Amino acid sequence: MLSEKCINAYRAQYPEDDCGYDESTGDIMIESTDGKLFCPSADETDESFLERLSRSSAAGRNLFYKEWRSFEYQPECEY
Using CA atoms, how far apart are residues 62 and 76, in angstroms rounded to an integer? Predict the structure, then answer.
């Protein structure tokens, strides 16, 4: 599981997004300003998260939107 250090670093770099722990999965989730949700793969580590954050800064765009999988809550499921 990713640490709070990752959440704090993401929030500092992208304060317009929401980033926090998802109650149903316990994983970090990112919600972009347009309401899209993104979640990490099972093998995401603090190191890979922070490295992606650094690459995003260098690229001038949020690579989490491209490299993480999108997530949609299923309307018929209870979470």
Answer: 31
Interatomic CA distance for residues 72 and 50, integer angstroms: 24
Q: Which residue has the tokens 């793969």?
A: 41
Asked whether 59 and 3 are in contact (CB, 8 A), the reply is: no
How sure is the predictor about 76, in pLDDT bands with cuts at 50, 70 and 90? confident
The helix/strand/coil state of 62 is coil
Q: Tell me the pTM.
A: 0.87
CA nearest neighbour of 36 among 18, 13, 23, 49:
18
φ and ψ at residue 18, rounded to 5 degrees: -100, 135
